[in-house]
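WARN retry 2 of 3 for item q-0093 after timeout on previous attempt; input resubmitted unchanged.
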Amino acid sequence: MDVTQEFVAEGLRRAQYITNERVETAVFLALALDKPLLIEGPAGAGKTEVAKVLAEMLRTELIRLQCYEGLDEARALYEWNYQKQLLRLQVDEHQGLHWEELSEHLFSREYLLERPLLRAISAPRKVVLLIDEIDKADEEFEAFLLELLSDFQVSVPELGTVRAHERPAVVLTSNRARELSDALRRRCLHLFIDFPGIEQERRIIELKVPGLDARLATEAARLVNAMRKLDLRKPPSIAETLDWTRALVRLGIKELDAPSIRATLGVLLKHEDDRARVEAKASALVARPR
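OK item q-0093 returned
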């Protein structure tokens, strides 16, 4: 694909994705070299958003495969529509057709249920394929994925080999729940996305929550940054930070103090032990130097 760094930088800005040069370069090279992009980092740091923005930038479809323990080829690639096949079988049997004639119809594309991987390969134009949280899938599934990422083709025994019309732009994300294989890493470009610093998160807040006072946006970014350093079970994500600042607007809160923080922590923190820890430090967090 013929892209430029300026095209990528402008696309990210147009999609209101505030980032840095390292992310822009990684996205550009993934497109220019036609290589999958593996993005690692903490949950909620904005990894999945890169794929969404990429699809918006390319003005194409985003096809998402959410990984989980026990995910297998059938769920990720394709399945046959057995109910539809059975109905067709019942109708054709009454017409006295032989099995050879029946199977020719039953195992055609009409009865194939395309799952995300096959949909991405079969798409008539370039799409963005998001393989989300690959670290949650089993190692066996990861091994299957290696072949797909190498050749961008799959074999359906009844139909033959299905090759990609256009190689999809592939983004894989990982929260590092387990170590990924070196073989998978070799096939991908690598990018690590951490939580943003105070200034970058302030810019994100001001862009996404326009009704928030600029000073309060800075204070919110500073406070969330401090919370993430408390070794919480689940640190606040960027999306939760935005939900929290929107809640501040709706509640008419103009200044952060210990009572307002304690009252709204349920928007930011989703585990009671995290909430108790932050509540105990609320006054100290507010009193930190600005």
